[in-house]
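Private note to self, pasted from the team thread so I don't lose it. Backbone tokens:
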């Protein structure tokens, strides 16, 4: 059997890896439009801050390593069209501008997504950058040490925007962070958390410009110099656009069924509208455990999980994509946070009636001093007030307690209730935590409040 895999990021890599794990003698052709396979954009901040020294190491595998396993790896070659009836693809070799057809028995698309460009004048000016992929990582690294860059404007205050702002703040630049939403990280955390993080960002020379819409980029001599919003103008030697992503699927129109936002429609086995063609990664939706519906959740964990399941189905197994909780985490200077599932701020958008409880505690008993690691911890638990089902949670502290969110993710997936969580068994040792885990404390308080 011949399998063609298109795209080499998380989903594509895991598909290839999954096939090799079960049937290593399968003929696999793996295509990447760029000249570098499996770069991990989620590791970009570590490279930009110098924690990781070599940009070429921010990857899962090299082409040479995969070829040694029997995979035919093609870089700088783009699959431009698919003929499902003939089971063929057209490949454009970007090095010599030649084209050819390749046959397949099974085809897996990991088309991914590309940075969304803000549709305003001036987007083509020099020094208007994105923050996704190896090429942009190299360019951004140069700007962290460029003495002519003093004012950096980041458009978009989600995860990538926050990472960009922190990188350039640590590089000694003045950063302006613009977002159309009223709070940074508003889609990921409720206000109890973002209020604290907003103060932290301000303390690190990051000016927050929430609730503003970018109207234009203006420049001098072809290079950006100002970002204009509906409320103000900001001097900008460098602009970094992080205002979302869009699926890389325009080339699939008319071949596969797409949603109105361009996502590839897949069933619960990750099969597309055409036989023997599967799709994984950021250009698809995944089943969302709190609601039972599908949702676009662009996370590496989801793409890797999809890739492994696609591999199993390609090889003849019968496996459905499991529901996910949408768990993620990030550090913002000294703070570490994680969230999963439904939040108070996303409940209505997901058609869910919810209630939340917010608690604060310390990570260890009061007798443990702060210099020994004892820190304040913030935790918010979201649940269904009718049947008490756990729907999601958020946690934050200057101590890394983010792993707690994995327990809540499992609670969401297994449909645990407040009653289950209130007295669930977690270990205790004063060097690590408290006798009642903060998850127990929140569930117990929620039950108490519901019975008052």
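Design output:
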């Amino acid at each position: 059997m011949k399998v063609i895999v298109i795209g080499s990021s998380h989903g594509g890599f895991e598909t290839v890896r999954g096939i090799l794990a079960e049937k290593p003698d399968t003929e696999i052709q793996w295509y990447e439009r760029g000249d570098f396979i499996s770069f991990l954009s989620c590791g970009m901040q570590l490279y930009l801050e110098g924690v990781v020294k070599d940009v070429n190491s921010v990857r899962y595998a090299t082409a040479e390593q995969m070829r040694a396993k029997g995979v035919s790896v093609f870089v700088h070659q783009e699959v431009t069209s698919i003929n499902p009836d003939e089971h063929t693809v057209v490949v454009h070799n970007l090095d010599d501008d030649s084209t050819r057809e390749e046959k397949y028995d099974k085809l897996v698309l990991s088309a991914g997504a590309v940075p969304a460009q803000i549709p305003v004048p001036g987007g083509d000016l020099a020094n208007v950058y994105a923050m996704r992929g190896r090429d942009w990582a190299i360019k951004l690294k140069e700007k962290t040490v460029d003495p002519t860059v003093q004012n950096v404007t980041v458009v978009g205050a989600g995860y990538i925007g926050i990472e960009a702002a922190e990188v350039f703040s640590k590089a000694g630049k003045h950063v302006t962070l613009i977002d159309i939403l009223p709070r940074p990280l508003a889609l990921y955390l409720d206000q109890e958390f973002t209020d604290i993080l907003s103060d932290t960002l301000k303390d690190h020379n990051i000016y927050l410009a929430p609730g503003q819409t970018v109207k234009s980029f203006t420049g001098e001599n072809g290079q950006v110099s100002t970002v204009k919003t509906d409320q103000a103008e900001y001097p900008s030697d460098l602009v970094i656009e992080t205002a979302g992503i869009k699926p890389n699927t325009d080339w699939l129109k008319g071949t596969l069924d797409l949603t109105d936002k361009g996502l590839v429609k897949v069933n619960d086995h990750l099969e597309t509208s055409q036989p023997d063609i599967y799709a994984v990664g950021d250009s698809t939706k995944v089943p969302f455990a709190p609601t039972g519906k599908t949702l676009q959740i662009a996370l590496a964990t989801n793409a890797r999980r999809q890739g492994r399941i696609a591999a199993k189905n390609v090889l003849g197994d019968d496996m459905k994509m499991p529901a996910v909780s949408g768990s993620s985490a990030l550090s913002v200077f000294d703070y570490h946070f994680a969230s999963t599932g439904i939040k108070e701020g996303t409940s209505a958008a997901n058609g869910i009636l919810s209630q939340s409880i917010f608690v604060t505690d310390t990570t260890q008993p009061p007798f443990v001093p702060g210099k020994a690691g004892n820190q304040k911890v913030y935790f918010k638990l979201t649940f269904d007030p009718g049947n008490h089902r756990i729907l999601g949670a958020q946690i934050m502290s200057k101590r890394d307690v983010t792993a707690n969110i994995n327990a809540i993710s499992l609670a969401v997936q297994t449909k645990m209730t407040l009653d289950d969580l209130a007295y669930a068994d977690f270990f205790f040792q004063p060097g690590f935590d408290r006798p009642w885990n903060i998850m127990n404390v929140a569930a117990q308080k929620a039950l108490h409040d519901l019975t008052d």
